[in-house]
Amino acid sequence: MSSSQEPDLMRLYLRHCAVGFALSAIFVGLILYFDIARIGSLIAGSDVGYLALFLLWFFNGTIFGSVQFAISIMLNAEDDDEDDGPPGGMLVPIRVSNNGTKSRRL
């Protein structure tokens, strides 16, 4: 990998991490709004609810960002099968002569 490609890869990673954390904020907001599994009530009634909210957002953002980045990398993969010929290479028929000698049969 050349050094000119490295900043592009880092920019791609940071962009997809930002998208992952934005999706995480939406996801956690929906969990709290609909009070799924009574997590919203639990966070609201706890004295360390802000820490729980931050950790829920942060860890979901890490997962969502990683998945975003992995999908983008896998979609950019090159297909190796397009430029190959038949397996084993090209077969070319050639004539084989026996140079005037007779073959012996057993």
The SS-based structural class is: mainly alpha
* Beta content: under 5%
Spans of at least 5 consecutive residues with low confidence: none
Radius of gyration: 30 Å
Tally of DSSP β-strands: 0
Helix and strand sequence: HHH
Sheet having the most strands = none
Query: Whole-number average pLDDT?
Result: 86
| Count of helical regions | 3
The N- to C-terminal Cα distance equals 62 Å
Envelope shape? rod-shaped
Please give the share of residues in helix. 55-70%
Question: Would you summarize the structure shown here?
Answer:
Helix content is 60%, strand content 0%.
Give your account of this protein's structure.
It is a single chain. The protein contains 3 helices and no strands. The protein has 106 residues and is an all-alpha fold. The mean pLDDT is 86. The protein has a domain at 19-75. 8% of the residues are buried.
Features:
106 residues, mainly alpha
Helix-strand blueprint:
Blueprint: H1 5-34, H2 39-45, H3 49-75
Helix pairs in contact: 1-3, 2-3
